[in-house]
Give the backbone structure.
Amino acid sequence: MKKIKNIVIGHNELPVVADVFFENDAQKKKVVIYAHGFNGFKDWGNFDLIAERFASAGFLFLKFNFSHNGTTIEKPEEFDDLEAFGQNNYTKELTDLKIVVDWVSDKANPYNNFIDGDHIYLIGHSMGGGISILFAAEDARIKKIIGWAAIGECKTPWGNWPPEKINQWKDTGVEYYLNGRTKQLMPLYYQLYEDYQQNQIRLSIQNAISHLNIPILLCHGNSDPAVPVEVAFMLKKWQPDAQLFTLDTDHVFGRKHPWVEQHLPFETEEVVRVSIEFLKEAVSCKP
C-alpha cells in the first residue's frame, strides 16, 4: 500500500497539506476525500488506520488539513499557528476543498494513473460534513457524500452564544474558545461571524442538501454531545432520500487523540464498514 504523507497540493494564503493512501496496483481507483471538523486535523485519532481501511477496500483515500485549521507543515498534529486558526471561516474551507478536488481532477497530478476522476466522493466529519454538503451542491464532480456527525448550520462554535456575547465579540474583534484537549485558548476573530452574515444563502446547509440529487449517507451517534443526533434527523427531513445510520456512540465514534492502539474501536469500525458499503453501492441519482 502506498502512503504519501504531508504533501502540499495548493495554497489558500496558507498551504493545503494532504495525505494519499492507495493500493499500488494497475487499477484506477474511485477517490474518497475526507474533510475534518472544527478543532480537528487530518491525523486526529490516528486517522491513518481509517485511511488504510478505505485503501484496502479499493479506493484512493485523501485526507487533508484545511489551510487555516491552525496546524503547520512542520507540526501537522499541533495547533501551532493560532493566528491562522482565528482567521479561518466557512468560505475559506470551501475554497480549500475546491483546491483539493481540482488537484484530484488535474491530469498532471503525479498519482493520476491511479485516479478515477469520474468518481469523487466526500466524507466530512462534523463541520467538515457541513462543508462537504455545501461544496457538493456547487460542484457536479462530487458523486456521493457521507456526513459523519455532520452539522446542520454554519454557526460553529457561536451558534448558541447570547446576543450580549456576539456584541462583545464585535466590539473586541476576538473571542476565545477553550480547546478541552490541549487547554489552548483558540482565538476566533469576528470575521468568522461576518463571513456567515455576508454569505448566508451560500452557507445554508438546509438549502444545499435539499437540492442535492446524489446519494447521501448520514452517520451519527445517539449520544453525541457536540452535534445532537436530532441534527441528523433534521438533515434527513430536509433530504428524505438520504440514508441514515445511527449507533450508540459519541461525536467521534469512540476514538480520542492521541489514539495509540493499532485497531479502531468497534463504533468507528461500524461507521467505516457502513460507509464503504455505501460507497460501493451502484446507486443512481434521483430523477
In short: The chain has a mean pLDDT of 97. The longest helix spans residues 90-105. The chain has nine helices and ten strands.
